[in-house]
């Protein structure tokens, strides 16, 4: 078992009455991690996995009273402080997967960390008038690892959750990409204060700044006969459609006076995506605008704009489809947050493993069937 992960679990305060504790907190959490890696989606699944693997689990866990029942797993995850559990996850990731360990990364390109929110749709509670759980994650786009998680009140609370998300996270020299909801000066200031650069989507919520940037690129890049050349121009004819993507960079930030108060602003960019579906006869065009404090070449920022969506495809989609997060019916808010942390621990363990060439689903099945492979995953 990963010593770092066990150490973080052991450092958590056990909220239970000590005189009534039959199962060690570390044992409960380790079994839960193994079960989620192996495909568990409910507390009943976790208990079934534990009972089926009890002999193997006794090789490295004490289990003084055997494997806990599913109600014990539920109660423990309802009681463990979710803020402390999320901090333990962040500390484990920081120690186990330092930025220098990124495989195949270009030394001249900053590591990109995408920040975005996700709603666990079935984690609502009508009886208590609670909306679905909303989580904000930091995701290393090239390594495919979830670096941190924290909860926000709702989607509109994502910018307010950013300081909590970044506390303890080593983002020195990284490029943080965020959507339009976080395109605010105070967010940009928080990022640059931590020694990182930002890449923010600029939309109409920024009023005058958006109108000015949109008008500048319309006249210099998108009108017929415009003189600004794209820094990136590529065609894609896969998936039954033809797509042309162009990225333009404003050569002088001072051309947009409304942006003069943005902290450390160095680049203003615009993208145009022209998309046509084969045989449909319909062509659509979409334009987006971005602000960045990075001094990286426009070509690097163009790649980063596209890679931001890795958090949707590589984390959110995987958690919903492979881990069943969206259909999870754990409604108690604390238990839902803690179960979400377990999924992200499992995802990172699976993504970090390079000993087998298999899909995430294939690795999870193999971990459920082969105790030796599960041990390999847990050892990091």
SSE pattern, N- to C-terminal: HHHHHHEEEHEHEHEEEEHHHHH
Give the overall form: elongated
Beta-strand fraction estimate: 15-25%
Q: State the secondary-structure class.
A: alpha+beta
Largest beta sheet, briefly? 9 strands, mixed
Note the gap between the termini.
8 Å
Question: What is the overall number of helices?
Answer: 14
Indicate the low-confidence ranges by residue numbers: 101-105
Strand arrangement in the largest pleated sheet = 3-2-1-4-5-9-8-7-6
- Rounded to an integer in angstroms, the radius of gyration calculated over CA atoms is 23 Å
Mean pLDDT across all amino acids:
91
Range of helix content: 40-55%
Strand element count: 9
């Amino acid at each position: 078992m990963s010593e770092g992960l066990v150490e973080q679990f052991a450092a958590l305060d056990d909220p239970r009455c000590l005189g009534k504790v039959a199962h060690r907190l570390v044992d409960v959490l380790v079994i839960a991690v193994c079960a989620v890696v192996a495909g568990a989606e409910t507390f009943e699944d976790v208990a079934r996995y534990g009972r089926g693997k009890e002999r193997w689990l006794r090789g490295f866990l004490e289990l003084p009273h055997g494997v806990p029942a599913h109600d014990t797993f539920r109660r423990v995850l309802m009681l463990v402080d979710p803020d402390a559990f999320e901090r333990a996850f962040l500390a484990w990731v920081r120690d186990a997967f330092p930025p220098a360990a990124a495989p195949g990364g270009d030394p001249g390109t900053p590591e990109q960390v995408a920040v975005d929110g996700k709603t666990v749709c079935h984690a609502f509670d009508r009886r208590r008038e609670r909306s679905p759980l909303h989580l904000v994650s930091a995701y290393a786009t090239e390594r495919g690892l979830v670096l941190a998680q924290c909860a926000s009140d709702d989607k509109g609370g994502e910018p307010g959750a950013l300081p909590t998300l970044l506390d303890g996270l080593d983002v020195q020299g990284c490029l943080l990409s965020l959507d339009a909801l976080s395109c605010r000066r105070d967010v940009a200031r928080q990022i640059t204060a931590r020694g990182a650069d930002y890449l923010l989507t600029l939309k109409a919520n920024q009023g005058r700044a958006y109108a000015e940037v949109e008008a500048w690129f319309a006249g210099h890049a998108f009108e017929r006969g415009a003189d600004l050349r794209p820094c990136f121009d590529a065609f894609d004819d896969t998936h039954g459609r033809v797509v042309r993507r162009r990225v333009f960079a404003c050569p002088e930030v001072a051309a947009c006076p409304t942006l003069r108060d943005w902290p450390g602003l160095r680049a203003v960019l615009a993208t145009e995506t022209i998309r046509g579906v084969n045989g449909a006869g319909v062509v659509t065009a979409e334009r987006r605008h971005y602000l960045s404090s990075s001094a990286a070449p426009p070509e690097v920022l163009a790649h980063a704009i596209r890679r931001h969506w890795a958090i949707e495809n590589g984390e959110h989609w995987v958690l919903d489809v492979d881990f069943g997060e969206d259909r999870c019916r754990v409604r108690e808010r604390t238990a839902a947050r803690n179960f979400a942390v377990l999924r992200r621990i499992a995802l990172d363990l699976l993504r970090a493993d390079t000993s087998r060439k298999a899909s995430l689903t294939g690795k999870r099945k193999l971990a459920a069937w082969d105790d030796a492979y599960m041990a390999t995953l847990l050892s990091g």
